[in-house]
Design goal:
The protein is an alpha+beta fold. It has a single domain, classed as Jelly Rolls (Sandwich), CATH 2.60.120. It has 11 helices and 15 strands. Strand 3, helix 1 and strand 4 form a beta-alpha-beta unit. The longest helix has 16 residues.
């Protein structure tokens, strides 16, 4: 049951059809985020592609099993505890900002080797994850994966400073309307804890990818200040598109995967209701994106190979190499040198292909590691 873009909606209720509405939070006069139960599709369901085309996003249910989601979260806690700053998953008093890795907008942890943590490589290697991305790329399974970070939200009812950015403050798209016209990227996240109005989550403006082509005309001056290579455009709070097309926060179970077109207006937002607990994580999600190898080039692929040994994290793009460790928030972090980065990952053949190695290169690597026969 697809939702529809109603360019004339002005009320405070969702204009989506086929959604079950639970809770809403009015952030300002023109922006109202509602919590919705959107359709969840099985991996491989052909109707999912039409839904993505119509709405600019889609949710695949149970991409990870509950056991795989639980294991992924345990691996993330392993990563945090092994940073060497004294984080203890069982002691919330050790989760303070002086020990927690530096976060950027939306509570995203983008650096300190997280893109090559055991958790991230485990999730990327789950067959259903790649199958969903292959489906949206016309069954092309020769895909390169991003070396993205994760989203981990601590309970702000325990510490108010842990509350993430309000949704109305950074509604954006991750694709330059002039530098990258048309469809270029489908972003994603794998959810590891169930969401609710108390936890908060990702926010989508359904159907807003169809507004993308009009942005150069609507915001010529604003867009003119952004270099075409910068794939981030943030909308002003008084944008009429945000009045006419209200954002939604979709319910997700542990193991679900959300995919969205980079042209779709989105962000994340904290709780729509005050959480009833303050002793555990509000939210945990793995950021992940896969794009066809054909969109990349040898120079980028070589940098990606080097990034594994250097444990360099990146943004969602795999056709360009964008070093997330060079983000200003990370470079300027006073505690940057305090973290112990994870070891260089040992990757299997499937993971090596997602980095950019070809079958022939992988065979050569194995032959080199074995050495000449008979020695």
């Amino acid at each position: 049951m697809p939702c529809t873009l109603n360019r004339h909606a002005t009320g405070k209720t969702s204009n989506l059809k086929g959604f079950e509405k639970q809770e809403a939070r009015i952030l300002q006069n023109n922006i109202n985020i509602s919590y919705e139960h959107a359709p969840r599709f099985n991996t491989g369901d052909p109707e999912a592609l039409q839904y993505l085309s119509d709405n600019g996003f889609v949710i695949f249910g149970n991409v990870l099993t509950q056991e795989e989601a639980d294991h992924s979260l345990e691996l993330l806690w392993d990563y945090l505890e092994q940073l060497g700053t004294g984080i203890d998953r069982s002691d919330i008093d050790t989760w303070g900002n002086d020990r927690w890795p530096t976060a950027v907008h939306g509570g995203i942890l983008p650096s300190y080797g997280v893109g090559h943590s055991s958790a991230q490589w485990f999730i990327r290697d789950v067959p259903n994850v790649k199958a969903c991305f292959a489906q949206v790329w016309d069954d092309d399974d020769d895909l390169l994966v991003s070396f993205d970070g994760v989203t981990l939200w601590r309970p702000w009812t325990h510490n108010e400073s842990w509350k993430t950015n309000a949704g109305n403050s950074w509604l954006h798209i991750d694709q330059h309307p002039i530098g990258r016209p048309g469809k270029h990227c489908i972003q994603g996240l794998v959810n590891l804890l169930p969401t609710s109005p108390e936890t908060g989550g990702n926010v989508i403006v359904p159907g807003s990818h169809r507004l993308f082509e009009h942005i150069p005309e609507q915001y010529a001056e604003r867009l003119g200040r952004i270099h075409p290579s910068i794939d981030h455009f943030r909308f002003p709070n008084d944008d009429p598109n945000l009045t006419e097309n209200q954002p939604v926060m979709c319910h997700m179970e542990a193991g679900d995967m959300l995919l969205w077109d980079s042209r779709t207006i989105h962000c994340s937002a904290p709780s729509l209701q005050t959480p009833s607990f303050n002793d555990r994580l509000l939210r945990a999600a793995s950021l992940i994106c896969m794009m066809p190898r054909s969109k990349s080039n040898p120079q980028v692929i070589e940098k990606r190979k080097q990034a594994v040994d250097k444990r360099t994290s990146t943004t969602n793009w795999s056709d360009r190499f964008i070093d997330a460790d060079a983000f200003p928030n990370i470079v300027q972090a006073p505690e940057r040198e305090n973290y112990i980065w994870p070891k260089v990952p040992v990757l299997n053949n499937n993971q090596l292909k997602m980095v950019g190695w070809t079958e022939q290169e992988i065979a050569a690597r194995h032959a080199e590691s074995v050495g000449p026969q008979g020695t």
